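Q: What would this chain look like folded?
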Amino acid sequence: MNGKLPEADPAAVFGPAAGVAWVSVGDEVVVYRVADAASLVLNPTAGVLWQCLDSTSRFADILDDLADAFGADRAQVEKDCLPVLSTWLAEKLVEEVHGG
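A: My prediction, written as structure tokens:
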């Protein structure tokens, strides 16, 4: 990776990448990438976002739902969530789903 995060299109659909498994444990989510036996424990907020990436919902719709659910400003939710999604894309934890 060249230090620049990939851009995530809010109109796209995302889901866990091939070879990535995850499980909810209490109020955290544990993500496991099989290829290099890497695991990541997400805090409760990131875990909610992760669980919303269901390979069927547009990211923009997920952002709308999160803003509604938490009574937050939609623009701020996008500003907070896009870098997280971009990082997960760069780390090959999630991927864009085509032809859903």
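Residues 11 and 58 are 6 Å apart (CA to CA).
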